[in-house]
Amino acid sequence: MAKGDPGGTTRGRRAAPRSRKGAAGDPALVQLLTPEGERIDSATGPDGTEYRVDFTDEEYRGLYRDLVLVRKLDAEATALQRQGELGLWASLLGQEAAQVGSGRALRTQDMAFPTYREHGVLYCRGIDPIMPLGLFRGVDQGGWDPNEFKFNMYTIVIGAQTLHATGYAMGITIDGKTGTDDGEAAIAYFGDGATSQGDVNEAFVWASVFNAPLVFFCQNNQYAISEPLERQTRVPLYQRAAGFGFPGVRVDGNDVLASYAVTRTALDNARHGQGPSLIEAYTYRMGAHTTSDDPTRYRIASEVEAWQAKDPITRVRAFLEKQQIADAGFFAEVDEQARRESVHLRERVLEMPDPEPVTMFDHVYPNGSPLLDEQRAQFSRYMESFEGSAH
Ligand SMILES: Cc1ncc(C[n+]2csc(CCOP(=O)(O)OP(=O)(O)O)c2C)c(N)n1
Ligand SMILES: [Mg+2]
Questions:
Q1: How far is the CA of 266 from the centre of ligand 1 (A)?
Q2: Compositional bias (Basic residues) spans (predicted)?
Q3: Closest of 192, 59, 66, 45 to residue 125, by C-alpha
Q4: Residue 244 neighbours by CB under 8 Å, 6+ apart
Q5: Closest Cα to residue 122, out of 106, 137, 136, 141?
Q6: What digits encode the pLDDT tens for the residues 80-131?
Q7: What's the mean pLDDT when you consider all of the chain?
Q8: pLDDT exceeding 70 applies to what percent of the chain?
Q9: Are 256 and 67 contacting, i.e. CB atoms less than 8 angstroms apart?
Q10: Can you tell me the distance from the alpha carbon of 275 to that of 169, in angstroms, rounded to the nearest whole number?
Q11: pLDDT tier at 16, thresholds 50, 70, 90
């Protein structure tokens, strides 16, 4: 889907009269669509950058469709895990706007480095949503080609992908692929908890001093499993960037328009040689950390309810209805597409073949290794010892 350009983003300029310097209660939060579905023309970031979007009606409807589809497919994956068809699932519930907004802001040539929760960004990159389900079912390693889709493999080691992204972004500079409108940039996704990892802080240092064309996109969903944000930081996360020497901005992560605008601007600055920046997408993990977690053990229902009122999809729907950009027929059609695609997803998961156990040794190294060959042979002998027995 081709997206309109947010346009008019200018560094260092003051806000236009109708703009607003952040959302109620927090002067630093960039917001372009309120929880009630009211549009804000422009918002100003902490360094004076002005953010705005200018989408066509079709593009607004497209964003709504993306949000509904990724939520439905995610719900289907959770259900599949509950029925024993997946080993585990890390739900994105509540984080759809942060992911779809930033995912749609990527240009074709930009490279993304996800965690294990970026199913919405994966969807925006045009990867078949079945792919991560193979990983969580334990039948393959994910399956997509990172170079083809410009979307790296999921990374479960917290924060490690920020270093991979930094190295990749430094490579973009070495290859001379920055400095023009069609220059390249990279984006690294990570969570609030990851900001306490050494890897992430090292990535900040390296990206900064080498002026790497990299956007650090932190989804602050308020928890690292059961650890709340106040166990990670005493300052707002976006302010950490200043200490490393690059700009930071906090965006309403439940606002798909603002997430799009800040990501598009940050990536374009990076591709033009202006170096890294940090985006803190302020959001909330509405579900459990993963299907192995029970969040009722460590957070209260009223907190979840307060965030329900800021739902990323409800506000887009309210906006589309108020502006008469979409009618009942459109919403019904999107729901029907989401239902069809989730049924299709389920059917294909149930048909996934179980791999031969010995194939777990494949693809560990590009050219194998003597130790691995020995382990494979040992394991094969072990499996053969069962042949002819009842088990
Ligand atoms: C290096 C490392 N340490 C610990 C873990 C276990 N672990 C998995 S998810 C997680 C919390 C991550 O929280 P956050 O960065 O906020 O991301 P979120 O899951 O909230 O999206 C931890 C500690 C891990 N996977 N890797
Ligand atoms: Mg988190």
A1: 25
A2: 11-21
A3: 66
A4: 204, 205, 208
A5: 106
A6: 999 999 999 999 999 999 999 999 999 999 999 999 999 999 999 999 999 9
A7: 93
A8: 93
A9: yes
A10: 10
A11: very low
- State the pLDDT confidence band at 147, using cuts at 50, 70 and 90: very high
Task: From 119, 225, 284, 285, give the residue whose CB has the most ligand 1 atoms within 8 Å, as the site to mutate.
Answer: 225
Ligand 1 atom closest to 220 (CA): 16
Closest CA to 274 of 150, 160, 185, 372: 185
- Cα of 227 vs centre of ligand 2, distance in Å, is 8
Q: Whose Cα sits closest to atom 23 in ligand 1?
A: 224
The answer to whether 285 is a known catalytic residue is yes
> How do residues 152-204 score in pLDDT, each as one tens digit?
999 999 999 999 999 999 999 999 999 999 999 999 999 999 999 999 999 99
Among the listed residues 248, 170, 177, 270, the one whose alpha carbon sits nearest the alpha carbon of residue 210: 170
Q: How close is the Cα of 176 to the center of ligand 2, in Å?
A: 35
Does residue 14 carry a pLDDT above 90?
Answer: no
| Whether the predicted pLDDT of 26 surpasses 70 | no
- Residue 193 CA, ligand 1 centroid: distance in Å: 6
Look at residue 226 and tell me whether its pLDDT is greater than 80: yes
* Per-residue DSSP letter, 276: -
Instruction: Read off the pLDDT of residues 56-75 as tens digits, 9 standing for 90 and up.
Output: 999 999 999 999 999 999 99
Pocket of ligand 1, beta carbon within 6 A: 117, 156-158, 190-194, 221, 223-225, 285, 289
CA-nearest residue, atom 21 of ligand 1: 191
Question: E-strand spans in 221-348?
Answer: 223-224, 227-228, 248-252, 277-282
Ligand 1 pocket mutation, candidates 158, 219, 280, 284, criterion most atoms within 8 A of CB: 158
Taking the whole predicted model, whether its pTM rises above 0.90 is answered as yes
Whose C-alpha lies nearest to ligand 1, atom 4?
A: 158
Q: Which of 257, 281, 4, 267 is nearest to 117 (CA)?
A: 281
Tokens of 320: 């589309």
